[in-house]
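As described in the Methods, two query proteins were run sequentially through the folding procedure within a single session, without resetting any intermediate state between them. The first query and its resulting structure tokens are shown here.
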Amino acid sequence: MPINIQQARAAIEQAQERAIAQQALSPRQFASPSIEHVSLGRGLRVVILLVLWAAGSVLSFVLGLGAGGLPAAGITLPFGVIVSFFVALYLSHIIRVAAQWERGVVLRLGKFHGLKGPGVLLVFPVLDSVRFVDTRLLTLDIPHQQVITRDNVPVRVDGVIFFQVRDPERAVITVQDYRFAVSQYAQASLRDVIGSMTLDELLSERDQIQSKIATVVESRASMWGTHIDSIRLLDIDMPEDLKRMMSRQASAEREKRATITKAEGDRDAALNLAAAAATMASSPGAMQLRTLQTIDGLGPSPSNTVVLAVPVEVLELARSLAKARGAP
């Protein structure tokens, strides 16, 4: 069956357009850390488990040996190995280690017990639960937001949030998920602030918009124990027809400035030529000097040969005789 090349090209172009449109409509993912807490005390807990388990096993063997000799030790040893293993497992889980940038919010029987870290923490299983909070500068992505400006222009804006946890206790207790809360509030504030501005203000006053959004989000995020360092707008996407109109407008503005500049140059050149002509007319030797400068400007190249059939003095004499004849 013959293949129509034009139809194949059209199908390929349509597939590419659909792929581009789908990529533009797909939301961007949040740039959050994949692991919130890195377990730094795992090796320490393993060592404590092995040491306590061995010590408990040896102790049970010694107690059995002292109580009833070797037969009693053979009975107490398996029991001591099992009991010492569970005791060592529990005691090893008491030790937790927080990194330099982490703080541990400890809850004992559901109530806030204290803020611990960095370094070694004592957290008793069953009684205590701990949540580690990263106090470094964190980054969250603001996905594409569809916003309509004050002059009814639809735009798609995305950005990034830089914030830091200042009070881990409030960040854990007062809000369910401080990362999600800051992100959602920033998205809502971005739509509110940009919706109150025109397109020209959005494109020209970018720094002021970023500062205003950060101020609005900071007023709420401070209640959650977090501090907004800054909010930056990454991309402002407009409809394609609007981009073409703005491109034509910019081209017309540049053409207008070029035309005005050329007209001003022609005017200045005309004024200078008029002033030069007046100077030559008022000075008898000015024209003669100009003629000599023009001849000298032809260059010293041998290909440029200038032949003066009549000396300049003869021309001056003829001009004087013409003036004398015309006099009454």
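Immediately afterward, the second query was submitted; its sequence and tokens are:
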Amino acid sequence: MKNPLPRLARAAALVLCAALALTASRAQAQDWAKAILDKSPRHQEWVKVKYGSRTVDAFVVYPEVSHKAPVVLLIHEIFGLSDWARSMADDIAAMGYIVIAPDLLSGDGPNGGGTSAFPDQQSVIRAVSGLDPITITADLNATADYALRFPSANGRLSVIGFCWGGGQSFRFATTRQTLSAAFVFYGPPPPADAMKNIAAPVYGFYAGSDARISSTVPDAKTAMAAAGKKYDPVIYDGAGHGFMRAGEDPTNTNPANTTARTEALARLQTLLGKR
């Protein structure tokens, strides 16, 4: 009988190669977003926001302007502070705003790391899903306050979030009374009884082919109106959940995502300019 070890070694090597290929594909899934970010002419930096015993890593992008600028607090998707989330921060900075995007998984990853320390996307999703709302609010407030102290900041603050972060931006508006505006991209609303605490106008951006989220819009409109609050949602026909990311992904096969992204960016720029 032939020695089975060489065959087993080859099989083990194939399994290892497959695992490495899968890991590489995960890591490279947003290479296109990183490439866009790397070409940006704007100044980008990582900062550490410390409050109490906690430290939050945050990504900052500055606009190329000659005057003090408003601050936009960006809340990432359920996929954590990904390359795409950072490239979205750069897109908004290009409109003339200081953008700060906290990694809300700071310290929660392996060896005390953040989003990039997790081994795969599913583990990131589980970790983000398990975050404590009280800690999230504290992280967001600390990060916003940090950016508002920049010499180049003019004191105005808006919040914008995507997917899971869209829901968090709506919720954050119920806790921070000094917001100029809240922008909710395909995220769920907070409980109706919390809406009475909202002081800023809320603008929604939703996908027509995303009934899980867009079906919440009618009740949110009713509840916000009953609370006497401004809520202006737009639903983009044919677009799917996550169209701001999918709309620029080279592998996107739904033209409605690209159209929705283009129209939403134009609307966002107009609305931010009025704040």
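Strands lie at 44-51, 54-61, 69-75, 98-102, 153-162, 181-185, 202-207, 231-236. We note this only descriptively and draw no conclusion about the first query from it.
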